[in-house]
What we know:
The protein has about 375 residues and is an alpha+beta fold. It has 11 helices and 15 strands. The chain folds into 2 domains: about 90 residues, no CATH class; about 220 residues, Dipeptide-binding Protein, domain 3 (Roll). β8 and β9 form a beta hairpin. The longest helix has 17 residues. The model has no long low-confidence stretch (mean pLDDT about 90).
Amino acid sequence: xxxxSVLMSVYYKEQALYLKEALDSIWLNxxxxxxxIVLVEDGxxxxxxxxxxxxxxxxxxxxxxxxxxxxxxxxDVNVDEITVRTISDGDTLAFALQAxxxxxxxxxxxxxxxxFENDDFTFSSAATSRAFYAWMNFESPVTSDPAVRKAIAMGxxxxxxxxxxxxxxxxxxxxxxxxxxxxxxxxxxxxxxDPDGAKQVLEDAGWVDTDGDxxxxxxxxxxxxxxxxxxxxxxxPLLAESAxxxxxxIGMDVQVNCTSDNNTIxxxxxxxxxxxxAMVTAPTGDPQYFFTSCALDSSVSNNGHxxxxxxxxxxxxxxxxxxxxxxxxxxxxxxQTVLDDNAYVFCSHLRMSMxxxxxxxxxxxxxxxxxxxxxxxxxx
Length: 380
């Protein structure tokens, strides 16, 4: 039987469920499997689509082989062939790099970093626009309360999350974008960690602990937060652990559901109150993508049904604005509105790190959280 490839395209308006079914149909449900699957991304995708693609890559054990282009226009290519492997297990990835089975790695578990902090390996790091953040469900009887949303924003210790649980491999976030962008967090204000202030906000709104069990109530309803997240990004279970601890201090019972079925559950607003996820918010270096994906009435991922007239109006202006500085200013205004509504709590931005053997040169971390292979890459 001759070898064959399957070519598919995907764009941001596709439904994640349908993409999963299509991928399964050409791999998991086939007796004769293709030798190659080529998935063409027609522009930036939604977080749900990226999650489906990531899970599929883990399922098929993705291996990509790149060969030298002898006619490359931008200089001599140093390496004849590069093999890119997907290794989803953290311990296996660490062992492979230690044993020399691979020359470099991205996505290493933070707990394994000390193994490579020596003369045999080097790190390349960059602040990225991958944000770890919590979405509020505006149809929930709990998080539809502005006081609860504000208290959650005041009750999450971003600094501790980054310094302790992420071991410093991140940056506390203010808004959707890091300070490396002109429309980043340096232009914004949001709630700071203030557990005493959060307690007062809840008290003033009628959430009090009447039975002394440490959990507040209002109108006979316990202040329970159903926190939905997923395990495929190592930071998200850690964020859930951190939030569960600090929000308990202000009288909230955070019940964590960390599941790979998150995309199905989040579509039913009766099943969750807070959804924590990760997203590259500015994959092209422009602020529009985050809002069109997540924060507008028309956004495919706006499962918490957040609405504000101002972002809708500003988004319409941005659609017809081509001046970079003016687009940045619109992005700042849209972020500030979202923060004022406590619709999202942006907790941290990823410090993207490539770890490589010391004889590898020319491999540099990319601020858009991509790994970029250039002609400068070499193994000495």
